[in-house]
Write a structure and sequence with these properties.
Blueprint lengths: L10 H10 L4 E4 L2 E4 L5 H18 L5 E3 L4 E4 L4 E4 L2 E4 L13 E2 L4 E5 L5 H5 L1 H6 L7 E5 L5 E7 L5 E7 L4 E4 L4 E4 H4 L7
Parallel strand pairs: 4-7, 8-9
Antiparallel strand pairs: 1-2, 3-6, 4-5, 6-8, 9-10, 10-11, 12-13
């Protein structure tokens, strides 16, 4: 049994390590947490989401980022990665020379997996809710064509809707786009 304490990293030490690492890690309160790999279905869904959003937003001042875009939740100190993120005003990055840590996402999307679902629904969403610019949070199932959508209301509460089925379409009001679930789940095989 190893009883040595884990090293406590500063955010600057974490970023230096993370920028040189081959694998991604999250960071919170001095600790790094390795991120798991992804399944075929997960990867297909992430690429499909990025493609659909990028195509619909191509003539607007919005940028769609994939799962390598680091996000800092300034209020809580969480450095993390969403599967897909969108910003529609000028992107604001951590004030350093790298411009690789986004501060102002408008939409964040997580594709759920058995190893991360509880975290994505619970603690991670609690962190995300403290991002002032965030207006929509989507949790996308790999098990069936289902997207759970949270939309921030003017008073700060979140409105939940679930969109299910390959013939369904999900409206994203903050972006002014529609996601056809048939496109989000293109080539995904359900058991």
């Amino acid at each position: 049994m190893n009883l040595e304490p884990k090293p406590h990293l500063t955010p600057e030490e974490y970023l230096a390590f993370e920028r040189a690492a081959e694998e991604k890690s999250e960071y919170l309160e001095g600790e790094m947490f390795a991120m798991a790999g992804a399944s075929r279905a997960h990867n297909l869904i992430v690429v499909n989401l990025g493609r659909e959003l990028s195509l619909q937003l191509r003539d607007r001042p919005c940028e769609t980022y994939g799962s390598d875009q680091r996000i800092l939740v300034e209020d809580t100190g969480l450095y993390t990665y969403a599967d897909t993120s969108v910003v529609c005003e000028k992107p604001v990055f951590l004030a350093d020379a790298y411009l690789d840590t986004l501060l102002n996402p408008l939409v964040l999307i997580e594709v759920l997996s058995s190893s991360t679902e509880a975290y994505d629904r619970g603690q991670k969403f609690r962190h995300y809710r403290s991002i002032p610019s965030l207006r929509e949070y989507l949790m996308v199932s790999q098990q069936e064509p289902l997207i759970e959508h949270y939309l921030r209301q003017p008073g700060g509460t979140w409105l939940f809707t679930a969109t299910r089925g390959l013939d369904a379409v999900l409206d994203l009001p903050a972006l002014g786009v529609r996601l056809a679930l048939a496109e989000v789940y293109a080539k995904v095989q359900f058991e």
